[in-house]
Amino acid sequence: MDQARQLLRGARKVCVLTGAGISAESGLATFRDSGGLWEKHRVEDVATMEGFERDPELVWRFYNARRKAARTAEPNPAHLALAGLGAGRKVTVLTQNVDGLHQKAGSDDVVELHGNIWRVRCSQCAAVYADRPVELPFPPRCERCPGMLRPDVVWFGELLDPRTLALAEEAAVSCDLFLVVGTSAQVQPAASFAFRAYDRGIPVVEVNKEPTPVSNLVAVSLIGLAGTILPALVENRGN
Ligand code: OAD
Q: Which CATH superfamily is domain 29-72+115-153 in?
């Protein structure tokens, strides 16, 4: 912890990659932990375009349940600690999460790598809508064409938005400290940003309740709950 605090104290630009683990203490299920979403659902059924074409109602049941859970979720001490990290430094959060909790906590530079669960997009004409009911009645239709609406999130087999990628890449290689929090680091290109920073000689600090593929390259690995570790890291940061 002392070593991590020292790295943070000297850092003027911090880039943070977050995953589902940071929202776990807000009551939102992760994907790959025991009891996680991918134990209860097949990825190919609920998180691919092929799955949506095959059974859109199943996909919408899955996302409606996640929208309902995310609506009542509140940022936890981990989100709040990151939002409080900004005094005197630039902090960019690259998140794989679609729940909007970093913004709710007050982080102002958030790059949503995998989209946002509150937006929906037409699967035909790509029109985007933000303010839909939390649980959309099925089938949710586009107002501009006969297409069906889908969540505006990135599914497996889909490319990330190129502007989002460019912003993430720039933040990852131009920071002087890279934090990785609550991600299994198994999904690309998200996980690759930690490796890009490492390749540039930027120190990487990981916070996770268990080791991950990133643990081998990090300067410091802090094993434990993000909601406990991040506030402790930020508390004594000096400036
Ligand atoms: P995962 O479910 O793969 O990983 C969650 C990580 O968080 C694991 O490494 C856990 O050990 C860790 N973790 C859980 N609770 C924690 C806590 N309280 N404090 C610290 N660490 C904790 O979730 P992601 O890595 O976010 O993509 O998954 C990446 C992507 O795969 C997701 O964005 C989603 C998924 O399939 C798409 O849907 C495209």
A: SIR2/SIRT2 'Small Domain' (3.30.1600.10)
How far lies 44's CA from each of 4, 48, 54, 129, in Å?
39, 5, 10, 25
Per-residue model confidence as pLDDT tens digits over 148-164: 999 999 999 999 999 99
Distance between CA atoms of residues 100 and 50, nearest Å? 26
Check residue 236 and give its pLDDT. Answer: 57
pTM of the model: 0.96
What's the CA gap between 160 and 113, in Å, rounded? Answer: 7
Q: Where are the domains of the chain?
A: 1-28+74-114+160-239, 29-72+115-153
| CATH number for domain 1-28+74-114+160-239, candidates 1.10.287.110, 1.10.530.10, 3.40.50.1220, 3.90.1170.30 | 3.40.50.1220
Atom of ligand 1 nearest to the CA of 207: 20
| Residue 162: predicted pLDDT | 96
Low-confidence ranges of the chain (pLDDT < 70): 236-239
**CB–CB of 179/7 below 8 Å?**
no
* Distance of CA 29 from the midpoint of ligand 1 (Å): 9
Strands 128-129 and 115-122: antiparallel
Q: How many angstroms separate the Cα of 96 from the Cα of each of 53, 184, 185?
A: 24, 11, 10
Ligand 1 atom 26: the closest Cα is on which residue?
A: 19
